[in-house]
Every structure is written in C-alpha cells, then in structure tokens.
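Extended Data, record Helicase Helix-turn-helix domain-containing protein
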Amino acid sequence: MFYQILLQIFQKLNNERTVSAAYHILRGKRSGQTIQDVGLFQLHNYFGLLPKLPRAIFDEAVSTFLQYSWLIMQESGHYSMKKLGLQRAAQTPSFLFDGWHYRGNEQVFFARLSLVVQSLSYQKEGIRSFSPISKDTQVQSWVRAFLQDQQYQSGHLQQQLLDECLRVFATLAVSESNKQLALYRLSGYSLPGWTWQQLSSERKETVLDSQLAFIELLHTLLNEVHATNNYPLLGKIAEELRVKALLTDSTQQTAYLYDQGYSIEQIVQIRKLKQSTIEDHLVEIAMNEPNFSIGPFVSYEEAEKVWQASKQYQTKKLKALHEVVNDLSYFQLRLVLAKGEV
C-alpha cells in the first residue's frame, strides 16, 4: 500500500517537483510550498498521512522505484516517471484517506476509544485499578470526563457503544480484514490488543502497510460518524478532531487583515513580514477559501491565458508558464493556479 500511495503522489507531481515534495506532503509539513502543492496537484487525501515517517524509509522506497525503472532522477532532485512507472500508477486502487481533515488526529480518536473500551471492560469485571492502554495524560483526562458524563457505572454504556460500533462498521466500504484491525488493536480485561508486528505477520505485509490500512479505516469511520447524527457516543469520542481551520495560524492573521481592507503593502508593515511571505498567505487563502476573489490581482482574461498555457504545455511549473505568459508576475501565476480553473 505504501508503494501504491507513493506512485499516485509521484504521478501527480510528475516532472514538476522534487521527490522531497512527496515526503513533505506525507509528513504534513505546514510550509506555504507544501500547502500549495496539496491544492495545486489535488493531494489533500495524502496530506499528513504519516507525520512520523522516517526519511530513511521514504528514501528506500525511492531507491526501489529507481531499481524497478519506475522513476528517473535528475541532478537537481527533480524526477520524471518512466512508462513502466506510469503503468503501475494507473493500476493502483483508489484509497479512502482524508489526511487533509485529520492530520494524525485519527490516532487520538482511537486512543480515546481504546481507553473507553478498556475501562468499561474492567468495570464490568468489578476491577477499579488497571494499567491504562494509553499513557497520554490528555487522553486519560478526556476519557475520565467522558465516562463520568455518560454515567458509565449504570452498566448501559457498554451495550450502547457496542451497538454504535456494529452499526457504523456495517456501513463502511472497507474490507472485512481491514475492519478487523480495529478489533485486534483493542484491549480489555485479560485480553491485550495485538502489536503491529503480530498483525503484520498475520496479514503477511509490512508493519507500515498494516498501519496505513488502519489509518484508512479510521478516516472512513470518522467521516461516516461526522456525516450523520446516528452515532452520539462515537460522535462525542470524535469531537474536535476534524480540522476545520484549514489555514495556518499565520495565514489566518493575514486573512483577517486583508478582510479588513488592508493592502499587501500595509499588511507587510503591520505584520513586519516579507512581502513574499504575505503573498504566500494569499495564495494559501485562494486555495482554501471558495469566496476569496483573485480579481483584485489578476483579471479573468489573464487567468484564462494561464490555464490555456498550462494545458498546451502540460505543465504547472511557474518558470515554464512565466516564459509563455510573461506579462504576469510569479505571484499572479500562483494565485491563478491556486484558485483553480473556473
């Protein structure tokens, strides 16, 4: 699965970026360039999928792709996909990830759920003291408050939570073997959850692939829970984990000033930042805010020229587009590409 995901990312970034761009997307790097790449190449589902991905694991995969003649590298670090690589990418399945909206928070959800299940399991046996499956003090505090709020001592919470889990799993368009990942990771009284090594050995795949299948399952589950009001307990466990503020903190400050009517030059003075940084923020806003108009910076006719050039030359590289539409600045080009074709 890891190789298939990389192939899909490399295919979309083909000949436009370095291999490091793919690494930063998977890690969820909050830089202006990475955020723009996500929007420009429609890679939202993979953003922040593996926040702790070691560079060595990534580089090893790239080396394998080179050995398989799927990629060819340039001295600049840029790459292009060879015919065999493009064929392999076309054969990869569609995945149900939603990294853009969770960015690792799916792990918080499962940590909460795991500790709730463990607590209820021990409570049913009448045992008040046990070693919590999650060592995160924030998770422990959250679960403690949740259990008290749900009056867990009445004994009804176990069946309610079980009913919701059965119902939500029945709706998910995920294989049964992947659904079982959640079950085997849970712990209860006298029944410890499986380690990733045990699971990957049982599934005959790498640990990373098992973890990716688990993340896909959690993203699918969370989106189902957030889409309806049919799962009040799971909805509570999932509260505040879906990212709503899609802009970086610094960009939000720029957006506020821009909405107040300040010009780029004035925002530069107020925030004491470089003009290029403020321009980065505006490009990020254009990518994420549907109501943001790029009209004050570039006309509709100019935007059309950019998209025609992009289609004709099959590129979104700024340097290549600037050579064709040289009457526009790089900032204007980036705004057009970030906003998308209308």
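Summary. Residues 233 and 305 are 52 Å apart (CA to CA).
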